[in-house]
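Look over this record before class:
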Amino acid sequence: MPSMSSKAVVLASGGLDSTVAAAVARRDGCRLYLLTIAYGQRHQVEVERARQVARALEAADHRVIEIDLRMIGGSALTTDQPVPKDRSGAERRDGIPSTYVPARNTIFLSLALAYAETVEAGAIYIGANVLDYSGYPDCRSEYLQAFERVARLGTKMGVEGRGVAIRAPLLTLSKAEIIRLGVSLKAPLQLTHSCYDPAVNGDACGRCDSCQIRLEGFKAAGLSDPAAYVNGAVRM
């Protein structure tokens, strides 16, 4: 049976970053326990993509937890508020965007921590990134370090000296670097979904912040984006 240190819970959204983070955990010798949160997000298609990613990575287990953050609102991802489109890089870096979901990573990491205690995993991997998503306060290293301290103080594992490490291996990488890393690790990038406001059939809009960052990343990496976009494949 794998030791505690060889097990990792991975927060798996079905997106590019979390999929590469899972591939890094696999490279690190971890047995994968993927956790996906269906929180009422308008881009619900990412949950099915997470299931496909879990199968492709041969995860030991994959759990999908349903919570309804639409009851709280406060985000363009959980309300009828329009998702920002066609913003420049400067605009994307200016302040916290409306796609920020209040306390999302705190909620998600708390659920991942509970799952980690259940399966006795020694680490939680999260695809947080400060360069491309600098507007999100819960993607900063200071926040992740603070949560690791909370995990050590507030869990049975922690007080017994078996704290859970919070690992964000993509934290300071550019999107192009993340994509290249994913390719080198044979991560199933073709299964990933990044769009905040997809069409009914799941095709990406190509215009929201997340789509633009993804497209710019593939271009900078010198690779073709395998995602399907509305009105045909978008290339930048």
The chain has a mean pLDDT of 93. The chain has eight helices and five strands.
